[in-house]
Amino acid sequence: LAKADGRNCVHLFDPNDPQTSDESENVAALLKIAIERELISLVFQPIINMRTGKIEAMEALMRLTMPDGTAVPPSLFIPVAERTGMILELGRWAIRTACRELMSSEHIRTISVNVSPVQLKAPGFAASVAAALGEAGVTGDRLALEITEGLEMEMHSDVLRCISDLKLLGIKVWLDDFGTGFAGLSWLRLIDFDTVKIDRSFLHDCVTPRGRAMFQDIVELLRNRGPKILVEGVESEEQLELLRRLDIDHAQGFHVGRPARAESLRPLFEAPRRQKTA
Ligand code: C2E
Ligand code: MG
Ligand code: MG
Ligand code: MG
C-alpha cells in the first residue's frame, strides 16, 4: 500500500510495481513507518446510558492517517498487525493513550479499548495493562477491554487466565460484536462479562418482524445471563426509541455520536445530554 523512499515521505501504493504486489507485506511496511512517524491516532465514540441519558463511556478506535491525509481503515491494517505481531506494540500504545485520556478528565467514567486475541495470548499482557494504569494513576474499573469472539479464541486456557487476571485488577471485560461469531455462547458460559455489545447487524435487521423477534430473543438471553447490554450501530431516533422500549442499558452509534477527537468529546461528559421526553 505504501513505501518509504528513504527520505522523509511515504508514497501510496503503485499497483504496477511488482515489488509492491503483496498487499499484506506492504501494509506491514506501512505500519512500521506509521508507528515510527506517529501516524497512528485514537478517536473516541461516545456510549450513552439509556436510563440517565448521559454519555458515560467512550470506545477508543484506532486511526491510521497517511501524511497526505488518506485514512487507512482498521479493517485493513488490524488483521495485518495481528499476523505480524505488530498489534502488540500498537495495542500497548492504545491502552497507554486511553489511560492518559482517563487521567485528563475525571468526568469520563470509562474508556473501552479493543484488544486482539494475539494480545490476550501474549505473556505479560495483564501486567502491561496494570503498568499503564499505574503510570496514569487511574483505577482499573475505569478501563474496559473489548474482546471479539472468534474461532482463534476458542477455549484457549492462556486467554482465560489472562482475562481472570484482568478482572482481578478491576478492569471491565466486554464482549464485542456478539452474535457474529460461532463461539459467543461458549464465551458467555466461560466468562463473566461486564457488558455484552450486540452486533449492529441485529439492530439493523429489526426492520422486519423476523429480525425484530430475533433481536428480542438475544436481548432476553443476555438479560437472563446478567451482563449489561450495549447495542451498537444506532443510526436513527427510531432505533434509539426501540432500545428504550426494550430497556437496553447502553447504546452506541452514529445517531448517538460519531467517533471524534478526544478534545471535542470531553464537554459531553460534563453536561448531561438532553433527552427527548416520550
Ligand atoms: P468494533 O470494535 O466493532 O468498532 C465499531 C466499528 O463500527 C467502528 O469502525 C465504528 O466506527 C463503527 N460504527 C460505530 N457506530 C456505527 C454506526 O452507527 N453505523 C455503522 N455502520 N458503523 C458504526 P472502525 O473504527 O472502522 O473499526 C472497525 C474495527 O476495527 C473495530 O470494530 C475493531 O474490531 C477494530 N479496531 C479498531 N480499533 C482497534 C484497536 O485499537 N485495536 C484492535 N485490536 N482493533 C481495533
Ligand atoms: Mg469494539
Ligand atoms: Mg472489536
Ligand atoms: Mg463491535
From TrEMBL:
Domain of life of the source: Bacteria
All copies of domain EAL, residue ranges: 24-273
Protein name as annotated: EAL domain-containing protein
